[in-house]
Amino acid sequence: MAGLGIKRFFINKGSSFWKIRFSIIFIWLFSFWGVMTSCSDKKNKEEVSVDKKQYLQEKNDVGIVILERQSFDKELLSNGKLTANQKNVLKFKVDGNLKKLLVKNGDVIRKGQPLAYLDDFEYQQELNSSEISFKKARLEFEDMLVGRGYDLQNKENIPENIYEMASIRSGYSEAENQLENAKFDVNSTVLRAPFSGKVADIKFKEFEQVNAGEEFMSLIDDSVFDVEFNLIESEVNQIKKGEDVEIQPFNTGKGYFGKIISINPIVKENGMVDIKARVQNDGPLMEGMNVKVIIQKNVPNQFVVPKDAVLIRDNQEILFKYQKGKAYWTYIQTIYENSTSYAIIADPNKNSAHLREGDSIIVSGNLNLAHDSEVTVKSTFEPSLAKETQTK
Between helices 160-169 and 172-187, what is the axis angle to 10°? Predict the structure, then answer.
């Protein structure tokens, strides 16, 4: 009996154990299912939210300008280089040691001002000897004429052949020529400015040997510059001598205005034609400076838009027109260009492309627009916007 009781006890105990174990497993499975269901619902909600965002149309703020016909300032552009209207390389005409240098690079000097001296001792000695020889020859010359009975006070009465013969035999002509040469050599030891300007490219220092004909320094008249540039042959017939040009140095961007002074009537092998214009310098322009050259040509009766209005889509030029809260693109072609604007026409190869006076052209906020995008006009520019932009 006792053994039977113990057996029943373990049977009852084992039954309770398995009931508890199954209960725990059921509760764990139910909790796991609940968590997975919750995550799945959340994921589905997020996906639906993302899809809605993808298909939600954005409102784009844009600026517009009313299209009208106006004059367009077409620009012919080129690059050029400044050269001084007057520039000379200065040289001594005699040899010698540089005794004194009176200027430095960049100095502004006036015409006739001495710039440098050579040691002139030997040339002064030669001059003194020439003066003595000349005086001796002149006495001999006068004695010959007096000996022939001619009055030296009335030289006009002396026959020309007699005068010439006496001057040669007495050595008077040769002495006179040597004296002039000696004076020239002495004067040549002083280098003087042939015109007013600025000193540049000094190549010697004091006490160095300078040879005759050797480049010593340059002198530049920088009050006026010539700018040399090129245009392609198809553009040359659009300009003429005396026409205005604008010159902009690359380092400053400031504009200077000049006039075309020459058009070379020869087309080079590369199809370019040499043009030269002249401009006054108020100080900053320098010899050899690289500049941008702009020639403006007025073309009347054009549709003009700012450059920001024109976009490239599918390798074609387009712009967006505004109509009743939406943006519609239309294909166009740019026919003229300047630094800020385009003159445009509707693309003749597209039947759907149209431009009319009074069209509202989107000029800002258009970079990310698509055809039929909803837009909101935040600013409306005056019809003369493009024209005003050209002149800024």
Answer: 70
